[in-house]
Amino acid sequence: MQSKQRILLVEDEEHLLEAIKLNLEMEGYRVTTATDGKKALKVFKEERFNLVVLDVMIPEIDGFQVAETIRLQNTEVPIMFLTAKNSSEDRITGLKKGADDYLVKPFNLEELILRVGNLVRRGMKPDDLKELNSYQIGDKTIYFNSYELH
Fold this sequence. Notes:
The protein is an alpha/beta fold. 43% of the residues lie in helices and 22% in strands. The strands form two sheets. It has a five-stranded parallel sheet, with helices on both faces. It has a three-stranded antiparallel sheet with strand order 6-7-8.
């Protein structure tokens, strides 16, 4: 169902980046990664994403600045901070910079997956939702709302 949903994952800790990427891909998402803020902004300009998952403490340009820049370019894409910065001031700063969610490390993987799913669904447009209501197998399409097969 989420196979067309694209996530930009920005994390500088390589082992954590790979673990999160693998788990999101197992959920059916297409994940593009960046390990610093400069690369994240470059990739964001070149591709369309349904969600940005962003660490705050990343090289080149910090996550708060990346979120602020993304918000200037795109007011609709959901942004989630996934960071070790856990003070209430950090959370408030993240939300002020345009984040839709803020999850602190260490985190529960199931909670991360659920939050990602919620943000992706909320960010979907009507055309995206229409795709979730049907599934194509070969030359046949199953329509879940009407229980029809064509």
